[in-house]
Write a structure and sequence with these properties.
The structure holds two protein chains of two kinds. By secondary structure, chain A is an all-alpha fold. Chain A has 14 helices and two strands. Chain B has a single domain, classed as MetI-like (MetI-like fold), CATH 1.10.3720. Helix content of chain B is about 70%, strand content about 0%. The chains are: A mainly alpha, B mainly alpha. At the A-B interface, helix 2, helix 4, helix 5, helix 6 and helix 8 of A face helix 2, helix 4, helix 5, helix 6 and helix 7 of B.
């Protein structure tokens, strides 16, 4: 120990220079293309509007920031002229339902593969991972094909006499959007749950069973408490991207009656005069999500430290 | 490898009454019985998750304009149709090439950048290094739309020489994907520990030699896995390229599928495009799996399972 300490203090300056040189390009890149861009969003959000071209004018000096975009965005969200309030509430409802469904479908699946798949585990794992390798757009396209008015789902429903005329699934139905969100993001939560459940020592579960607990009680008293962390991180990994999702909604519904926060921000980005408000809303979303994001980072750091 | 979702039927020779009697004799049901319900549920999920994709792939071979009614097999949407096939429609054709171009450039830039960053940050302890490590991890978890909005504004309002287009797309994709090599290599560094480097130093290697001759070969599998993840991540990326592309010349496949379908001009050619993306990703995945297995052969704790989850980005 003493020797190692000596060696480290001996050449610290030279040693550090080597590591700094290695890290420098990445640091510079992140500074210029991650930190500066967010300052640019802030400068646009706090900036002004060029009335002639309806284009946003970035104000880089914080002392000259204007609050007009913030005030406009605030009026979008609350008050008598608000149109974004219902969108926010709808987004929360969709994301809550969709992520809970992801958990309810994903947990039993991950649990089965982690605990009972035996020597077929490789096969199940390949099938669970397959959606990761299929483009999100292709997966949405698959449902567009199935849900069309003359698609297989409608044909099955009319064949079974469940409906007399085909349902317009793609014409702005909340059910379709939630289905799309679940379908799109469930592979992520399943993989997180699988990794977490796989890490549980089977001896703990066997101990529960040996001490006379039934299968259900072992699950409730041993497995479930031990999987609290993967459940939380798994939910976060589905909730975070869902809150910024605009494409699922556009493809499967396209109607204003189902639009979400993501659609709002993306729509303002391409609209002259509204880009500043888009910047405010995106900053607001970032601010709200910062705490869950930091929690996610800390939780995954902790569990990877424990695994190492 | 066959599995059924229902329990095997009880032997019909046993009358129901006797079966009930037997059950009463045994105090509890077999505690180690196979969880048929869970297995059935898992298969139902897998069918729901994968069969629609199979149908979408099938419709890319449809001999008609419909994406929902089967009209016979043909390859016209790939190359047969002189106007609307992927091969002959300039927009679709360009999209395939653009996706490949973005994947190659992004991987070439992001992987060395991320690996060097991981090595430097891991060994250089200081406030700057820990701050930027945190920034890097933040870039990993931030919702893609928020990041894409920031990229959009920085290229339209500040770095205006980089106007929207291929260069902006590559810069955005590198920033978004640099966390893969950075995180995976750091995880590998933690498991490797310091002993290899110290042994090399004791044997007279200087820092550069130890890095080049000892550390880089040991980090090989991690670097390879991250390259696979970056490459396939770029193929499937949508939000960043959607916000940063400017015309049909620099629009990759995912954005073409989205905008054409959403614009009401969908057709089996889009399914063909999606199928091409799928095949590209699967080829990368298979190369990644086999390569990772080969590179980690003989290592303690190496298995097909860990190779699978690593290539899917679930470890590290």
């Amino acid at each position: 120990m003493a020797r190692r300490g000596q060696r480290q203090t001996g050449g610290t300056a030279g040693k550090n220079r080597f590591w700094i040189a290695l890290a420098a390009p990445g640091i510079l890149w992140l500074a210029l293309l991650f930190i500066v861009p967010f300052y640019a969003v802030l400068a646009i959000a706090m900036g002004q509007l060029n009335r002639l071209f309806e284009s946003p004018v970035a104000v880089w000096n914080p002392l000259r920031w204007s609050s007009s975009n913030v005030i406009n965005a605030f009026h979008d969200l609350v008050g008598s002229t608000s149109f974004a309030g219902p969108i926010v509430i709808r987004t929360i409802a969709y994301v809550a339902v969709a992520s809970l469904l992801c958990l309810l479908i994903g947990y039993p699946t991950a649990y089965f593969v982690a605990r009972f798949a035996g020597n077929r585990r490789g096969l199940f794992l390949i099938l669970l991972i397959a959606p990761f390798w299929i483009s999100y757009m292709m997966r949405m396209l698959a449902w567009i094909d199935l849900l069309q008015t003359n698609g297989y789902l409608n044909r099955a429903l009319t064949d079974l006499d469940l409906t007399s005329h085909p349902v317009n699934w793609l014409g702005g139905k909340s059910v379709t959007v939630v289905l799309g969100l679940v379908y799109g993001y469930i592979p992520y939560i399943i993989l997180v749950l699988y990794a977490g459940l796989d890490r549980i020592d089977p001896a703990l579960i066997e101990a529960g069973r040996d001490l006379g607990l039934s299968r259900a009680r072992t699950f409730l008293r041993v497995t479930l408490p031990l999987s609290r962390q993967p459940i939380l991180t798994g939910l976060l990994i589905t909730v975070l991207p869902m809150l910024g999702d605009y494409f699922t909604n556009q493809l499967l519904s396209g109607a204003a009656s189902t639009s979400m926060v993501g659609n709002l921000i993306q729509g303002q980005l391409g609209t002259p005069g509204l880009e500043g408000q888009g910047a405010v809303l995106s900053m607001l979303l970032l601010l709200i999500l910062l705490a869950p994001m930091i929690y996610y980072v800390m939780a995954t750091n902790r569990s990877s430290r424990e695994a190492a | 490898m066959t599995a059924t979702s229902t329990p095997p039927a009880a032997p019909s020779a046993v009358p129901a009454a006797t079966r009930a009697g037997v059950r009463r004799l045994i105090p509890a049901r077999n505690p180690w019985r196979h969880p048929w319900f869970l297995e059935g549920f898992t298969w139902l999920y897998l069918i729901w998750s994968l069969v629609p994709i199979g149908i979408a792939v099938l419709f890319s071979f449809n001999n008609g304009k419909s994406q929902s009614a089967w009209q016979g097999f043909s390859t016209r949407w790939y190359y047969g149709d002189p106007v609307n096939s992927v091969l002959h429609n300039p927009q679709l054709h360009a999209a395939v090439l653009q996706t490949l171009r973005l994947s190659v450039y992004t991987t070439i830039i992001a992987v060395p950048l991320g690996v060097a960053f991981a090595l430097g940050i891991n060994r250089w302890r200081g406030i700057t290094s820990s701050t930027f490590n945190f920034v890097m991890i933040l870039s990993f978890v931030i919702p893609e739309l928020i990041f894409g909005v920031a990229m959009f504004f920085v290229f339209t309002a500040l770095f205006t020489t980089v106007h929207l287009g291929t260069l902006a797309e590559i810069l955005g994709l590198v920033t978004w994907n640099v966390s893969w090599p950075a995180i995976i290599v750091q995880a590998r560094l933690v498991t490797l520990g310091r002993q290899y480097e110290e042994a090399a130093a004791d044997l007279g290697a200087n820092q550069f030699q130890a890095m080049r001759r000892v550390m880089l070969p040991l980090l090989g599998p991690a670097i390879f896995a991250s390259a696979v993840l970056v490459f396939s991540g770029v193929i499937d990326d949508f939000v960043i390229v959607d916000l940063l592309s400017s015309n049909s010349g620099n629009t990759p496949m995912s954005v073409i599928i989205y905008s054409t379908q959403h614009g009401g001009n969908g057709g089996p050619a889009l399914n063909a495009l999606g199928t091409i993306m799928l095949v590209m990703s699967f080829v990368i995945a298979i190369i990644g799996f086999i390569g990772y297995r080969w590179m980690t052969r003989g290592e303690r704790g190496s298995s097909s399972m860990s190779a699978l989850t690593t290539i899917a980005g679930a470890e590290g």
